[in-house]
Known about the structure:
Elements (H helix, E strand, L loop, with lengths): L3 E4 L3 E7 L14 E7 L1 H11 L4 E4 L1 E3 L2 H12 L2 E2 L4 E3 L5 E8 L2 E7 L8 H6 L1 H5 L3 E4 L5 H13 L3 E4 L9 H4 L4 E2 L3 H8 L4 H7 L6 E2 L5 E4 L4 E4 L12 H14 L4 H15 L12 H11 L2
Helix pairs in contact: 1-9, 9-10, 10-11
Bound molecules: alpha-D-ribofuranose.
Amino acid sequence: MYDIVxxxxxxxxxxxxxxxxxxxxxxxxxxxxxxxxxGKGANQAIAAARLGSKVAxxxxxxxxxxxxxxxxxxxxxxxxxxxxxxxxxxPSGVAGIVLAEGDNSIIVVPGANYQVDKEYIDKNIDVILxxxxxxxxxxxxxxxxEYVIDLCSKNNVKTILNPAPIQKLKRSILxxxxxxxxxxxxxxxxxxxxxxxxxxxxQKNKLxxxxxxxGVVFSDGDEVINIPSLEVEVVDTTGAGDTFNxxxxxxxxxxxxxxESIKFANIAGAISVTxxxxxxxxxxxxxxxxxxxxxxx
Length: 297
Ligand code: RIB
């Protein structure tokens, strides 16, 4: 039995560093290039595993070099990879990332990630329904995400959806989730409204909106609570949201409250941006405790 089952994407991140991002039609000389492991699913799985959760990754990889490298990386980070399906004739997912002017721009080509289908879910139904929490994103086909949410809800298995990259989801599906963690832009598309306070109160202890430097907001039903962001030296923001989600899941599994879990995940997210790569800065529990002691947060 796993603490957390992540069903989602596994990508190779091809990261280009430059002083500025190119305009349409422009060719620029960059400063650096690296290939590092990524994918919102794999990132969130590793974030939780680094913090001590027992995690299984469900998803698809191609039978290519990236597939080998990405599976090995999950294993090194103590994520169980035995349920990952290797698919023929489709490459593993890749993300082209431009790091410039203090932020990232990302294009994901899903490749094998889009081979995750309902049949694969049915085949792995036992491991999914025996887990304490199922963590999902939107880099696999949306009908499969909806199928998993429905199955989990019918079987009383907790779910967290990080709705990125954003796609519109049916309200009936959103209602079946235990937690949903959009950023501001994703929130507006999902809930179709700018009446944030009202919706936060309606969706108490469930809707958690991450707002970058403005912190994280949620409601306990009575009031809207803002957990402020933490000041750190930023190297690379890629994967900060994934670290937040993995750490939040870990904390909820440990039986912490929503507020405690947001505070914990906020610290993990802040530490994650101090190093290069989506997974490079994801902290261990020890690093989080040191940060808490040093910063008195
Ligand atoms: O959230 C960051 C991730 O988004 C990257 O690792 C990239 O692979 C894309 O999935």
